[in-house]
Amino acid sequence: MNESGHNGVLSAIIRFSLRFKGVILALALIFLGYSLYSLTKAKYDVFPEFAPPQVTVHAEAPGLSPEQVELLVARPIEAALKGVQGIESMRSVSIQGFSAITVAFKTGSDIYLARQMIAERLSSMAGQLPKGLRPPVMTPLTSSTDVVLVLGLTSDKLSLMDLRTFADWTIKRTLLAVPGVAKIAAFGGDIKQLQIQVRPEKLIQYGISLDEVLAVARGATGVRGAGHIDSENQRITLQPEGQPLSTGQLGRTVLLHKNEANVTLEDVANVTYAPEPPIGAGAIMGKSGIILEVSAQYGANTVEVTRRLEQTLNELRPSLVKQGITLYPALFRPADFVETAIHNIRSSLLLGSILVVIILFLFLFNLRIAAISCTAIPLSLLAAVTVLEHMGYSLNTMTLGGLAIAIGEVVDDAVIDVENIFRRLRENRHSDSPRHVLRVVFDASIEVRSAVVYATFAVVLVFIPVLTISGVAGRIFAPLGTAYILAILASLGVALTVTPALCLLLLGKKDLSEKESPIARWLKERYRANLLKVERHPKVIVTLSSVLIISVFAIIPFLRGEFLPELKEGNFIVHMTAAPGTSLQESLRIGRHVTNELLKLPFVNSVAQRVGRAEKGEESRGPNSGELNVSLKPGKLPENASQRIRDVMSEFPGITYSVKTFLSERIEETISGYTASVVVNIFGDNLDVLAEKTQEVAAVLGGMKGTREVQVQSPPESPQLVIRLREADIARWGFESGDIIDAISTAYQGDIAGQIYERDRVFDVSVILDPKDRRSITEIGSLPLRNPSGTFIFLRQIADIYEAS
Predict the structure, then answer these.
(1) Nearest CA to 592 among 381, 64, 584, 386?
(2) Alpha helices in 641-686, H assignment, sequence order
(3) What's the pTM?
(4) Is pLDDT of 242 > 70?
């Protein structure tokens, strides 16, 4: 086995495999077991991590208009972050009371170092933002497809405030304790507050200002430590008690003591539990409720986290039933898509193996040959999975797709090798001077070595360009190419080691069929006849081939191009936007009608609506904008499902909409920041001109052939009521403009005075006007203000109040 021509690395590998076939097969079994173990530890996800390293900063600015948020909050934060090393792009979205700044770093940047640098810059911003605003914070670190579960809660027994309290303090707490969960955003319900709802006429009657009510409320609420006493031999902690713990106790808090009489909070205000001013809402199947959107931590296993969450929810079910709460556990479940992909590749693997066995048996009439060839499929694919797992890749749509494509090719190298070995062994049996079986198997493997290696590397080279794609496309498709290449290279390794060893073991001393397959014999006859005909007319064949090639290239410009095909995920996200200024209640009303129509479609399983944004959530939407999660029934989905949903949406005039799958939305949002295939940005300093030009551009785009769902992401400003203070009147009455603005904010936005505790639950105490005095814009001018000398005037006496848009 050391003859000339049989030297080299590949020859040495084959020689070793044949000489120590027992060792090779034992190692193959050990590796198979380790690969199966690695498969149980592999991470499963919907898609590869396609977003660049990025950090999102949220800044809450209650009460500020979008322009004020942009100028006073977003721009200072952007200016502070611009100098951070490694930033590739930065974008921000500002709405009323909220701004979200997304900072994208260069590919390959350390995301944890990036977050540390952002945190340092944010910590240095103290004093640079308007007084009273909450400091900006980074959102938890999540992956591109961060949502792992969307669930809903409704109840016929509990109020929306009680339902939200249970969700916040029981369900969210429990789910956040599940390993792998990063955050939970809650839409809908009423957040419980203990509100001191001031009645303006009572302030005038008792001569008390809004500031005094706020100051007393702040002094009465909250928990404070009182220190300790050190005696000669022990330390005794002081624990004061007696702070108000109920609405009645807080209502009896003294505001003013005069002439041996007390004026209490309940004399000038309604002290009661009430919902804080909402910024979002939710509905499930047209019924108001709460939607919880659960996001996974960066790098978490989507399937594993989902199963842990579902196990936890099952443990909570008795408590939910006892409370009269209906749970919708899977309004959106990305793990379904992953599990379907895994099931499909298992089916493909099984079907591919069966087909290989059948084809090889039909052509070679030998089950042992088919069995030897089929060993390449599990060994190659499991080897690829093991390497992918060690490289940090997850099993997702793309990596599983690469393995599925490779199924038909990983067996090729083994088939070439085993077929040639089988043929040479059969010829050796009929030889006058038969050689040793080991020599025959070795020579037969060496004979096709070049063909096997060259063919393998030719296929690998075809996929190399996929690995060089840059940007989001590269991060999506590179894992597919990597999985495919690893599987093909693993199949080459199997063909050079395991296949020769198995051939020597199973074919070397066994009887080999002498009968040629009828199918092979029939094909040979037809092929020989056709080959002779082709050889007689080479010019005709070359001409026809050239025409065919030219025709193919001519058709290419007419083919429709898409970044990704529309995957059958079983869910659609419908973005729905009404006119600026639309209230939460009106958006919910429209959503209920849309939900009812969508539920009439035979393939729709459930519809859940989210309006506005969630507290500490990722979305930056106003009350006129929201999403519908449309979950489809399992099974075969109609090809025109998205179009039929669009047809339903088109029946509702006055709203703009778009219909997306979850993956396409996340990819588009990563690329541009918006959920659209094509985004046009218009820049300028004049907001009125920008709004005008935006509408003109939208009109032009809407008239172009092939466009649909043209949306204006920055629509004309919502209606506003301008309160312009008159400087002369402020000075005449002795006011400070800042005190007046604070009073307006307290009256209509509410001012947090402190917290009140119920066991382990904490609720804000807010000072705000009585709800009936906050419903009419004509009543704003009647807000009473007391100047330093004790004189009461109304807001209209020192300010011009008019509507603007």
Answers:
(1) 584
(2) 641-649, 662-672
(3) 0.79
(4) no
